[in-house]
Amino acid sequence: MASLSLSRPLMRGIRPPRVFPRGRSSPYAVALTALLMVSVLLLMLLALGIFSLPIRNPVDSPASHRRDRSVADTTTDGLGERGPQWTEVISWEPRAFIYHNFLSKEECEYLIELATPHMVKSTVVDSTTGKSKDSRVRTSSGMFLLRGRDRIIRAIEKRIADYTFIPAEHGEGLQVLHYEVGQKYEPHFDYFLDEFNTKNGGQRMATLLMYLSDVEEGGETIFPDAKGNSSSLPWYDELSECGKRGVAVKPKMGDALLFWSMKPDASLDPLSLHGGCPVIKGNKWSSTKWMHVHEYKV
After folding, report:
1. Is residue 51 part of a domain?
2. How does 224-239 read in b/e, with b if 16+ C-beta sit within 10 Å?
3. Which domain does 238 fall in, by range?
4. What's the CATH code of the domain at 250?
5. pTM for the complete prediction?
6. For 86, how many CA atoms within 13 A lie in the half-sphere containing its CB?
């Protein structure tokens, strides 16, 4: 039997393996090794904080980014630094709570600055036509800020949504109000008793009233029909005679009063009747956010 030659392939058409000369490397292997080394180096720099990837929010404008760098990094995503925050129960009938230091001093001043050039005499809603009308019931001045109009407003609205568990899209635009000495808001409901005003967003279910300034005397928010009275509150001795006629909250810059116009069973709460006592000394600035059962289209 003839022996096989080791110098030839065993089968026709099969090439022998290619052998690279000793001391030389494939160009593909060299490129892969270099890429791997660069990747490892970048990961090490990122981990050590020496190198960072630029990230930009496409929603905000360049001007907003310049302002972001000038604002201190605080517990809020808004403006300035807030004091210690906690919630205090004011009443269970109606459900009313104070969120202390909900806004920073800088945010309060920002809202007042935005609103001041556009203040007009406040009106009330006509339950028949749904249109605004003048009334002696409400003697303040005010204006509305478009929902989501800038970074600060969006941050405040997100904070409201996080606190109330009501989506920001269910809220009306912020209303800024100014009460001078003698000005007031007679007791009223925030919910509607007509179909016209509930076409957009359904019924108002809750209100967040943010105090943008301190008031030297008067200007309390009062719930005249609440179960209980202000005598058990620590600020009772500081209340005006109007404030002592029910459960009342004394305005304090940065605090926010949350109260519900609807009960947990979705029925309207007549105990949510509330008003603003006359300002006796000083000025009262506030901002209101009304929230609906459904999305409120602006």
Report:
1. no
2. ebbeebbeebeeeeeb
3. 90-126+135-292
4. 2.60.120.620
5. 0.72
6. 4
